[in-house]
Amino acid sequence: MTDAVFALTLVLLLLAPLAVAGLALVNVGLGRSRSAAQSLLGNLAAVAVAVIAFALIGATFAGAFGGAAHSFSLAGKSWNWLGSAPFLLGGLASAPPQSQLALLFEFLAVSLAALIPWGSGADRFRLTAGSAATVLLAAILFPLLAHWIWAGGWLSQLGVNFSLGAGFLDPAGAASIHVLGGFSALAVIWIAGPRRGKFPREGLSTAMPGHNATYVLFGCLLALVGWLGFNLAGSLIWLHAPFASLPVTAINTLLSASCALAATFVITRTRFGKPDASLCANGWLAGLVASSACAALVSPAQSIFIGTVAGTFTPLLVEFLELAVSIDDPSGAVTVHAAGGLWGLLAAGLFASQPGQFLAQLVGVATLLGLFLPLVYLLFALLNRLVPFRADPDGERLGMDLHELGGGAYPEFVIHRDESHR
Amino acid sequence: MKYAGLLVMPAGFFLVLAALVLFTAPVPHLAFVLCGLAVEVLGFVVSVRGHMEIRGEHR
């Protein structure tokens, strides 16, 4: 790795925390005003806990900066399944620059993944439980997936071992950040249950709109900058892309998000008579999530298609999950991150020029759905027995700010009475 | 019911792994991987239904 590539990658990675900031704003804005401070503190705590847990335990298993790996032989092939880097980041200073950048990428990636369940658990997810869940995510689940995809694990070796294209490709974390985060969000929703009054005994579900659309939409703009950093740095670190390919990757990221927003705008305008701000924000984010998998691998025309599809299914799936499946997901994380990420991963295979790439992407998707979703649910369900995820009814009635922090985010505002608690 | 669905999903994953190991020709490879994915989706649907039933009882 030349000094120029090292410097550029480092600068791009320093933009990535803006994606974390943007997503935190979206999570807060889509929750209720009486839980805003607890939600933002929860997001901040998730980042801190994720970084510490990854440094203490996760980085060893992820194996991003060298060390031996655990593998076994089956059917004449070597299956590399767990990293074995030095404990507590030992020897990091003497590791090659490429490996140091890879580790920094993983630290930022695990921070972003840890935020995703927070938006879905808004208004009922306790701080202690959220932090404990983040430890599981950053110490066990993310490192395992990161090793399999980025550090020479069996998914990345599908091309070498089974002639499936270039192996499972995920240059900017659509699988290890977004699908894993989206599945974690689904597990939190299932375990914590819906907000009180969300699904009444009779009639349709109660609308509980986010309290600050400005936070949400500004968060989307911030996230774009961070996503550009993730997508470009990811293509340099994991795909060893040449400089000349970077502008196309950046344009693909922009196109995917823009087309997704336009599609969601048109659909909500057509269905409801006026465009819906929170669904449009979800559409924009779904386009960005889909671009994480494929912005470095496809053409601009293909990005337009990928973004349009992401923006089309986002409002429909959000509505379906709430009305038909009774999933109370205030931030829409299951749709945006899980479904958007899965679509991006499949699209990367669909438009790949190498034979067998689509099959490699299918195997990756099957691993996420068949292994990681049950594993996330099982670990979180066990954790829920030790540290209950859901706040008690009094906490929900008062708001998580008063209940957990003792003070509200907006002390001068009069919080209106909640009709759902009559 | 939700746990039954969650147990079916890894079965689909192992079907996908078996496809990788047992087949070399692209068509049976793809067919078995798609079957494995279909089993996973089935398990997911059962799990979702299980959660919907629990939700209905708690309303």
Taken from the alpha-carbon principal axes, the silhouette of chain A is globular
Q: CA-to-CA gap between the ends of chain B?
A: 19 Å
Query: What sort of overall outline of chain B do the alpha carbons produce when their principal axes are compared?
Result: elongated
* Share of helix of chain A, binned: 55-70%
Rg value of chain A: 21 Å
Total E-strand runs of chain A: 2
Distance between the termini of chain A: 64 Å
Query: Could you name the ranges of chain A where pLDDT drops below 50 across 5 or more consecutive residues?
Result: none
Outline the structure in words.
The complex is a heterodimer of chains A (422) and B (59). Chain A has helices at residues 3-15, 17-29, 36-62, 97-120, 127-150, 158-162, 174-192, 213-238, 246-272, 277-294, 300-323, 333-350, 357-386, 393-398, 400-405; strands at residues 68-74, 77-84. Chain A is mostly helical and 422 residues long. Chain A has a two-stranded antiparallel sheet. In chain A, strand 1 and strand 2 (77-84) form a beta hairpin. In chain A, helix 2 (17-29) packs antiparallel against helix 8 (213-238). The longest helix of chain A is centred in the C-terminal third of the chain and has 30 residues, at 357-386. Chain B is an all-alpha fold. Chain B has 2 helices and no strands. Chain B is elongated. Classes of the chains: A mainly alpha (422), B mainly alpha (59). Chain A binds chain B through residues 74-75, 77, 158, 162, 190, 193-194, 199-201, 325-326, 355-356, 359, 362-363, 365-367, 369-371, 373-374, 377-378, and chain B through 2, 6-7, 9-14, 16, 20-21, 26, 29-30, 33-34, 36-37, 39-41, 43-44, 48, 51-52, 55-56, 58-59.
Quick recap of the structure?
The complex is a heterodimer of chains A (422) and B (59). Chain A is mainly alpha-helical and 422 residues long.
List key phrases describing it:
heterodimer, A: 422 residues, mainly alpha, two-stranded antiparallel sheet, 2 strands, B: 59 residues, 92% helix, 0% strand
